[in-house]
Amino acid sequence: MKILIVFAHPEHQSFNGALFRTAVETLTAAGHEVKTSDLYAMGFNPASDRHNFITLKDPDYFKQQTEEMHATETYGFAEDVEDEISKLEWCELMIWQFPLWWFGLPAILKGWVDRVFAMGRTYGGGRIYDNGVFKGKRALLSLTTGGPAAAYLKGGFQGDIQAILRPIQRGMLQFLGFTVLAPQITYGPVRLEPDARAEVLAAYAERLRNIEGESPFEVGIY
Ligand SMILES: Cc1cc2nc3c(=O)[nH]c(=O)nc-3n(C[C@H](O)[C@H](O)[C@H](O)COP(=O)(O)OP(=O)(O)OC[C@H]3O[C@@H](n4cnc5c(N)ncnc54)[C@H](O)[C@@H]3O)c2cc1C
Q1: Which ranges of the chain does DSSP label H, i.e. alpha helix?
Q2: Most buried one in 123, 128, 159, 195, CB count within 10 A?
């Protein structure tokens, strides 16, 4: 498989860094072709603006989706956005590795979505959800939390993790047509003993070795 791994953590020695390296090494060793977007290392600019484009249809009034449609027709995306869209189009499986920040994506990853999931090129004209541009491709969230698993149940202290992830899994990934696999959630890695953390990494590697045969996950609707 062609696999894109998007990594969004500012510290490579973090547990997220360990999960990222585990995925790259395991999938490469299994014979897959792996590309990465290490967003902090790339210095990826998450702020969506005029600089997403080489030229503008309307320089006097910036309307992002109009410019995205225009750029789609004129090959007009800026190089950093074009590179990332090309990786999306290339991959058959996309993995996002990130810590849960404020019940959502770290800003650098949310900004990557804001700039890269461009109208015209990645969705639009009725090409969404089951009819999405990326129908046939699969996506997997691998995330860590600060809180323990027991806090992330329906009615629990933090609430149902699947509801928290739905805006990402439904509103971003399925919206573009991706088939979503069950999220890989490491709850509170800082609370685990070193041996338990090593077991988490080994279990993730084992899952990834068999990822081609995995069935889709029901993310639920609103
Ligand atoms: C802005 C912000 C918002 C947040 N919002 C939320 C929220 O909404 N909900 C929530 O639950 N949490 C929240 N948190 C907490 C955050 O989700 C966790 O701190 C994060 O997920 C932990 O992952 P980490 O990779 O940073 O862990 P780290 O603290 O980097 O790692 C945990 C431990 O693993 C060790 N480790 C690293 N590599 C290995 C290895 N190879 N083998 C074994 N051990 C290793 C590290 O040394 C460390 O001791 C927030 C944090 C921030 C900064």
Answers
A1: 15-29, 39-42, 64-74, 79-90, 107-116, 161-168, 194-209
A2: 123
